[in-house]
Amino acid sequence: MPGIQPSVLAFLLIIGSALAAHAQGAHTLQGRVVTPDGNQPTNPVKVTLTFNGRRLYETFSDLSGRFSFTGLNRGRYQITAEGDGQSFDTTSVYADVSAFGSAPQLFTQDVQLRPLPGKPLQRAGVVNSFSQDVPKRAREALERATELTGKGQAEAAIVKIQEAINAFPEYFEAHFQLGNQFMKAGRFAEAISQLDRARQINPNDDRVYQSFGLVLMQQKNYAVAVAVFSEAARLNPVNPLNAVMRATALIHQAYAIASSSSDTAAADKQYILSRAEISLTQASNLSDKKVKADHLTLAMFYEMKEDYTRAAKELESYLQENPNAKNADSLKTIIKRLRSSSDKKASTQQ
Description:
The protein is 53% helix and 15% strand. By secondary structure, the chain is of the alpha+beta class.
């Protein structure tokens, strides 16, 4: 088995450092649309994501009110839930994606619909969804924590979430959000503890496994992350986010394998890449081609597949979306090498 070419090795090393330094375009923003009393709306709600006045994505909440957007850069986003014209008004909130570290990260921001003045609230529909009778004190503390998070006051938000848990120790959403706060702060042991408590309270919520997987990604435990994201996909097989997160973990797992070390390692790498390709296809099919991995991860994937042209195109797309990236010059050099490798491969096949 031939060894890794110098240009390919340089690509992998610089991509790795680019991910560590920027982690742009790799993050996920998710949440729930809820009524003023904390329940899910009777019908799916159209949710729009906007950045600097530019509409990026549109989706609909599922039966439990959940929505998600993936492939996001750092920045402040506006989430708008469309009113139904009967009971609820169109409602907008802001969410900050302020990532750190090398792995894709998960951010949560719920949207509580505003009732139309003088209109009666609809009764919540009956869905197969976990729900809790949360005391008012605990619910208000968590709502305040959400507001503080939106303002970038993470430590104050943590204090309010802990107040919510003290008022209601079995509060699933509070344990879940506290785990995410600890994860974003790099306090992984505490994050795992809170996420595990949330799992014990409600073992059927795929969001808990998504967050577990992201912690594992931060710790570079990619094989276990793959298994955890697979469990999230089992719990919610129609959520494309679960498929794309599993694909991302598989790609990083493959990247960590030195295929030149042995024929067995090379075969393992190709098998993992084939699984990643299946997951990428699943995410695309489930989302009508709207959900995919970030450009840097896809560039890694296509380079390892020796599809140098597509790898170069992904990096070019990344630079178009991030023209002021600090690693722009390095990426442009990599693109030239990839184009050269593509030309050489084409000439040998003639």
